[in-house]
Amino acid sequence: MKERLVLVKTRQLSKQYAFQSFFKRKNVEAVKGLDLEIYDGEIFGFVGPNGAGKTTTLNMLVGITEATGGEIEMFGRPFKAGDIEPLRYIGYVPETTSLPDYFTIVGILDFYAQLFGIPKKIKRERIGRLLDMVGLFDERYTLIKNLSMGQRRLVDFMQALINDPRLVLLDEPTVYLDPVIMERFRLILNTLRKQGKAILMSSHILPEVEKLSDRVAIIHRGVLLKVGPKKDFMQHGSIEKEFLKLVKDNHS
Known about the structure:
Helix content is 32%, strand content 29%. It has helices at residues 54-61, 105-115, 120-134, 149-161, 179-194, 206-212, 239-249; strands spanning 6-20, 25-39, 43-47, 69-74, 77-79, 90-93, 167-171, 198-203, 215-220, 223-229. The strands form two sheets. The chain has a six-stranded mixed beta sheet, with helices on both faces. Helix 5 (179-194) links the parallel strand 7 and strand 8 (198-203).
């Protein structure tokens, strides 16, 4: 059996924010001592309530937010905010879509491809393949402002794949997706997994995590409550039941 590669490893990863009120300064830990490993060829479900620390964690993994403690290894090397080279191999879909309205779909994909220095021939072929994959080839010259929210989400997804990344980070990716687009999204993720890519999917929509994930981690108030194969989360019948039990047991 082929040995799995660890593409992402965190050790005691922490993020603390300081808030200044009228009377005093207060420190809040958004993420507390997080230990994770993400392997190639897997979909890793990262779940927790709103405010659990999921987005903060993803932002630290791409250098948007600087960690205040712990370590990150990316592709076998130490990583910290400001390191540019590993980002060439990462695709990231943020929680909220913020695409510029006056680009066409093709235009925005071409823009991102140029940022990565992708040669013209490869760029053209890749954009065409991505448009086919998400079902937006006929809409390729449509302005972003004229797309539905679900279609905009698919464009977010395409821009994250334009560099053919080894690691794909998805923050609440199923927001705005209707059932038809959701089914296409599942097929796409399974295809990416078969290609050997690692996919970290942060979500609070637990049925989708249950359908897609190979391994799961539950985070609550910045603390990792449980991590392991999906089957370990099905002892009470579903990930949702296990999730509710763990969160209630750790609610204080």
